[in-house]
Amino acid sequence: MSTRVKVWASTALLAAVLAGPSLAADDASVRKDLTAVIALQGLPCGQVVSATRQGDNEYLVSCQDENRYRIFVNLEGRVVVQKQ
Question: pLDDT of 34-56, one tens digit each?
Fold first, then answer.
């Protein structure tokens, strides 16, 4: 899968998560979408076990394999996944 397609797909997934009506920070569907975003970035996770919403476009997540990530949309509108 090309990098452009991965970026587009992860941006679309995160936009869908962030555009939803007032989602609970640890909702199962949010965790599933964030797991997909991390996988599309090619980072290890397994499955997101907890997600804390930090702002309109930012989450802190903990994975099944004990990795932790900050997921946010940068000023250019791209999804960024940073290992914590």
Answer: 999 999 999 999 999 999 999 88
